[in-house]
Structure formats: C-alpha cells, structure tokens
Amino acid sequence: MTSPADNDTAKPSNFLRHVIENDLEQGNYSTRKWGGSPGDAAHHAQGMQDPARVRMRFPPEPNGYLHIGHAKSIWLNFELAKEYGGVCHLRFDDTNPEKEEQEYVDAIRDAVKWLGYDAVLADDPAHPGAPNEHVYFASNYFDFMYRAAEYLVGAGLAYVDEQSAEEIRATRGDFNTPGTDSPFRARTPEENLDRFRAMRDGQLEDGAAVLRARIDMASPNINMRDPALYRIRRATHHNTGDKWCIYPMYTFAHPIEDALEQITHSFCTLEFEDQRPFYDWLLDRLAEGGLVASPHPRQYEFARLNVTHVITSKRKLRQLVEEGHVDGWDDPRMPTLAGLRRRGYTPDALKLFCERSGVTKSGGWIDYASLEAALRDTLDPIAPRAMAVLDPVKLVITNWGELMGGDDVLDDCTAPIHPHHPEMGRRNFKLGREVWIERTDYEEVQPKGFFRLFPGNKVRLKYGHVIECTGGTKDADGNLIEVQARLVPDTKSGTPGADAIKVKGNISWVAAADALQAEVRLYERLFAAPQPGNGELLDELNRESLLTTMAYVEPSLAQAQEGAPIQFERHGYFVLDSRADSAGRRVFNRAAGMRDSWGK
Ligand code: ATP
Ligand code: MG
Q1: What is the pLDDT of residue 36?
Q2: What is the residue with the minimal CA distance to atom 24 of ligand 1?
Q3: Entry pTM
Q4: Which residues constitute the domain of residue 244?
C-alpha cells in the first residue's frame, strides 16, 4: 500500500520517462558496438566507458544568454539524467564561427551552475569529484566531423555542389513539387573528394560550393533533399581560430556531437521533428562505416516552453540589449536566467515552475502568473520577513513624549523573522514619535471597507502599539505631507493585556529613527502583448515596466544578502540588487507582489 506521502513525492509521469525506462529495461544501450574498424570513434569516446548509463545533453549555442525556455531544457535533461543514475553533458554547440563569444560561454556556464547542476556535471564515477568533467565544446570535434564528411564522400553518400545558393534553393522544390537533381550530383567519389579538399584548402571562394548529402531529391521531407553538410566561410572561430575555412552545418554537426559523446537520449524541441529522419540517416550511415557506435543516440522532441508576456528568442533578447531598451542581459525585467536571478528568482522557484509546466508533445502558452506563483510558493515558507514603506508619508504620534517620558524616547519592538519558524529567530527595531507609513494607509474620509487611518479610527502599528488617528496635513497643492495620531496607552503588541483593544486595521511602518533609506524597483511585464514575438518587437514592449521609488525599510535589512529574497510584508518578495544606486543606497528589486495584480 502506498501512503499519501509516497504519492506526494511521486514524480509526474511524462513520455520521455517511458522512453528511458523502456531503454533501460531492454538494455538497449548496455552494449554499444562499432560496426567497422573502431579507430576514430574509440578515440573520441573520451573515457566514457560506462555505456549502461543514460546520457543526456544540454547543447546551447553560445550566441546569447540563456532564458527561461533554456531553463526548461536544462531542468529536463539534468533531472532525468540524475533520476536514472545517468549523466548530463553541458555542450557548447559552437560550430558557427560568427556569432559566438566568450562572454556567452561564461554566462551559460554560470547559469547552469546557479541552477544547481554543477554537481551533476561532475557526478561521474569514472571521474569522482572532477568539476567541469562534462563540459564539452562541439568545435573540438571539427577534425572528426571532417573525416566523417570524407567518409560519406568516399562512400558516394555526399557530393560537392557548385551551384549558387540561389540555384540550390530553387531546385529544392516545395511541399507539392519534388526537387530536381543538381548537375554536380553525379560526380564520382574521387572527383568529390578532390573538390571537398579544395574547399577545405581555401581554393574556393566563400559560397562557391557546399558539401551536400546525397539522399533523395524527391523525399516528401524537404530536409532529406540532399541537405548541406559543409559550407565555406572565412571567419575566425573563438576556439579553432583560422584553422578552418569550412564549417559543418548544424544539422550535420549535432548528431555527430551526440554520437561522439555517446548520448543515449537527445531531447530537443518540436521544431526539430522534421530533422529527425536526417539525424537517423546520418548516424546509421556513420555506424555502417564504423565511425560511430550502434545503437546510436535517438532524438525525441517535446514542446517548447512559451510564457505569456515573455520572449524566448536569444536573437530578439539581444536586440533589446543592443538597442538599449533594457539595461543589459541581466536587467531584472529580462527573462534571461541572469535577469531572473537579479530579480529575485531562485533556482527552486524556476525548477518548480518547469515541473508544473509539464513535458508534452503539444505546445501552448503558460500564463506568466504561474511563474510568479511558483516563486511565491517556494519563498513563502522560507523567506525572512521585513517591513518596508514604499510610498512614505510621516506619521507623528503627538502624545508620545507625554506617555513615554520624552519625545526622543524609543521603544523596543520585536517580530518573528518568519511567522511559522520561531527557530529562525527574531528581528528588532524601534518605535518612536515619528514613523513612516504608506501614503495609501490614510484617508481623510473613510471609504467603504477601509479600516486603516482616518480621523477617529484606531489601528495597530504592527508589532507595536495601537494609535488613534487625529488628522492629516496637506500642502498648498493638496498633497498629504503628515498624518497625526495619539498613542493609546498599554497596547503594545505582545505585552500582557495588550489585546484588550481590538482593532480592525494593522498597518506596516518603520520608525524614522532607525529606518534605512533604500531605492526600490518595482517591475511589470516587459511585454504588454500577451503573446509577444509575432508583431513588431518594440510595439509589443510595455513602456511602463519599471517604477522606481525611494523607500524606508526596517534596519534588519542592513544585513540583506544578494540572492536571498525577503518578503516585505504586504508588498511581495524582494531581493537586494548587486549594485547600489548612484547615491550609494541599497537597491531592492521586487521579484513578485503578494498576489497577481496584472491588469488590475
Ligand atoms: P533561441 O531561439 O533562443 O536562440 P535556440 O533553441 O536556438 O533558442 P539553443 O542555444 O540552440 O537556442 O538551445 C539550446 C537548447 O535549449 C536546445 O535543445 C533547445 O531546444 C532548448 N530550448 C530553447 N528554447 C527553448 C524553450 N523555449 N523551451 C524549451 N527548450 C528550449
Ligand atoms: Mg539556435
């Protein structure tokens, strides 16, 4: 019999788990063999002598910072590998020489580590405790990829096409029309090898030729109509420098990367579904030639994560950064992992969100509100509490001196750091004659259902005394500049007999004497459009996505740590920013409000 607790911890089932479990049951990968002479492949197996383990990979192209969509893929691959006792590789898919930069490699490495998968990367019994053991660069396989291409040429499975890009496009056909053969398709393997080497040796201009697979120009799948494998591109690569002037195409490189690393399950998003026949064709051919082991890795597709009001395209996010619409890749409004982190999101919140969003075969949009809900659900049980006044107006307790023995006397107040975790301890602060309160906590005339400050009403200063409001002062423009109240004696919260006075209103405050001034940044959705990415990017932007206020916060926040979110009572979840403001004051970012208020 299973107890309810077992059910709670049971992992939700998904179709990828079934695939893995079936492979493990059948022992499909327990003996991998090379068909021909295992020269190259054995050399490239990179010490991965444990074929029974499942191996996944997360293969980002280092051409931008990782975003929330990547978090889904990272979470999926690393968690599945962990769950089934396997390994997950972080592989930089750096086969394109043009757009890749070291900054992105570092940022990606950092984001994966932050999500908590560094230990998993290192967790290989063959290499105990070795950090970075499973970090790979596709560009390290360029030599092998070149030899694999020569093998295909020699076997009559690839040819050098010297048509122009235009001609190749025009003769590919479309959904209704089969493609037509290139005039270069019938070249002999010897001729092709000669021309391919000429490509490699820089004897041809950029774009003058491509290496194409020879498959089927009439295939109903356009990806099988002799796809390009190599192109000529004179560009300096961040890893291989100027060694190569030809570079493999992604569709050719990716399956080879998987095979060389002995990946068992290659998970990707649905847009690659039509590439799967080529993935299998290529690895089947290379396995026949003994260049890669059998069975080779298999590709499985799942629906990409789409979140409303969020863009998940590195190219578009780069546009926002480069055109200055946001303040860098780690702007807290950005859906990048660097931005979410600075905003106050935690790895646990993101993982919970990924888990809740499910792993399916059909796409859809997840509501942004569920991202915030995951944050609140993870932080509510653990985040320390603090009081902060975001739109401050001064409250003066006019009889303070009289009752407390002097206008300068300060009273000690204390509150639990967390209401349900006494073991987390208490926070201490002062109460004095002048305190900061929220402007919206005072009304001249009581609105219906309003139980905070209005003349004649009693409220409790949370964790402090009960006061009775006597009035407010406005300036010539009608702006509230001060609120007055009188202390009701012997009503301090937590002291015996205090609860003799029942009040309906309980307001947050900080004492003028010990409050810290801080800049608080409140964020809204970066995109007003619910499903951005289809129209003109800039038209979809929410121009009011950042509101900055000068706030007063309780003194315990002097100890706030970067990356450790705090609940500001009534206001939501905040985190200390990594950078102070221009006046050197602390800056707190709001990760999310206490509840969803978008559109209200
Ligand atoms: P982008 O369009 O942002 O550049 P990409 O897919 O081209 O995204 P890659 O660096 O190639 O970016 O992605 C690495 C991995 O992350 C791939 O396996 C890809 O399928 C996955 N991935 C990217 N975006 C999402 C998403 N929104 N949901 C789930 N997985 C994603
Ligand atoms: Mg890409």
Answers
A1: 46
A2: 69
A3: 0.92
A4: 158-250
